[in-house]
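Milestone M4 deliverable, item 7.
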Amino acid sequence: MRTRFAIKTHALLQRYFPERRLFLRSDTDTRFIRLKSETQAIAFVGGSMVVTWTIVATAILLMDSIGAGNFREQAKRDQQTYQQRLNALSEERDERAAEALAAQERFNTALAQVSIMQSQLLDSETLRSEMETGIEVVQATLRDTMKKRAELTENLAALQSTDGTDLTGAGAAQADSTMDFLSDALAQTAAERDQVVADAQEALIRADEMATEIRMMEDKNDTIFRQLEDAMTVSVKPLDKMFTAAGMDPDRIIDEVRRGYSGQGGPLTPLSLSTRGQDPTGDTQRANRILGEMDRLNLYRIAAQKAPFASPLKDAFRFTSGYGYRWGRLHAGTDFAAPHGTPIYATADGVVTHAGWMSGYGRLVKIQHEFGIETRYAHQSKIRVKVGQRVSRGERIGDMGNTGRSTGTHLHYEVRVGGESVNPMIYIKAANDVF
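Output delivered:
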C-alpha cells in the first residue's frame, strides 16, 4: 500500500512538476543538477508561504499605520477642543467674577443708600414730632390768648359801664394784632408739618423702590452664581477623575503645587470677597466657594503641565510593545514605532538630568518632573537638549532612531515614580477624556 501510494504521489508530482536538469557548462567540462519533482514541489510550497506571509504582514502593517494615524489625529482634535473649552471657561470665569464683584459693589451701594434714606426718614419723623409738639404749644397759647381776650373784653365793658369811657377800640385792636400773629405762626407751622409728612412719605416710597431693586439684584446674583457653580463642576470633575485614574491623589497634588507657588500675587493667590469685619452673607459664602473652585481649577491646569499626561509623539505611529513582562523579563516602558527621525517631545514640564549614551538604551534623555516623576526617551538617533536644561511640555527633545539594544526604529518611553517604573499608558489614557 505504501509503495503504491508513493508511486501515485510521485506520478502526480511528475505531472505538475516534471523532473528537470540544470546544466552548468565551463570551458573544459559540462555538469548538470537534477531537480526532482519532490524538490520542485517543496520549493513551490515554500515560496508560496513566503509570498503569503509577506502579503499578510504588509496588510497588518498598513492597518496599524492607518489606525495609529487616525488615533493621533483624533487625539490632536481632542486636545485642541479641550484647550478651546478651557480658554472659553477661563474667559467666562473672568466675566462672571467681574459681574459678581460689580453686583456686590452695587449691592453695597444700594444698602448704603437705604441706610441713608432710613436715617433721613428717622430725622424727618423726629422733626415732625417736634413740630407737632410746637403746634400743640401754639394752639394752647392761642386758646389762652383767646380766653384772656374774652376776659379783657369783659373787663373793658365793665369799666365802660362804670365811668362811661370807650376803651374797647384800643383793646380790640391789640387783641386782633396778637391773633393775626398767632394765626400766621400757626399756618407756617402747619405748612412745615405737611412738608415733613410729604418728605417722609416720599422717603418710604423710595425705600420700597430700593428694596425691590435689591430683590431683583439678589435674583440676578443667584442666576450668576448657579451658572458659575455649574461651569466649575463641569471643569473640575474631569480633572479630578484624570489625576485619580493616574493614581495621583488630587488633594496632595493641589497642596504641592500651592506650596511651590507660595509667593504673594499672581494667578495662584487665593481669591475671596471681603466682609469688612461683618459676618459673611449667603452670597458672600457662595462667591468665596466659587472663587475657591476657580483657584483649584487654575492649580489643576498647572499640575497637568507638570505630569506626563501627553503623548511623546505628535506624528503618526503604532504601538509595537506594551508595558509588562515578556520572556520572563519586565519591559519597563511602551514602544512607539514611526519613521526614522520622527520628532520626540517632552510629555511634561521638567529638567533634563541625562542626555547621552546609556548601555542598552542607546541615546537616552531623562527628564525629572514634579511629584517625583521621571520620564525616559530611549534609542534616539539625535538628542536636541542638554543636561540641566529646563523643558516645557510639547518641546522637541530629540529624533527617533535605532541606537542601543534595538531591533528596529522606535521610541522606548518610560515613566518612573519614586524610581519605580509604571505603565506610561496609565497617564496617556487618563487624559483621553480631558485633552
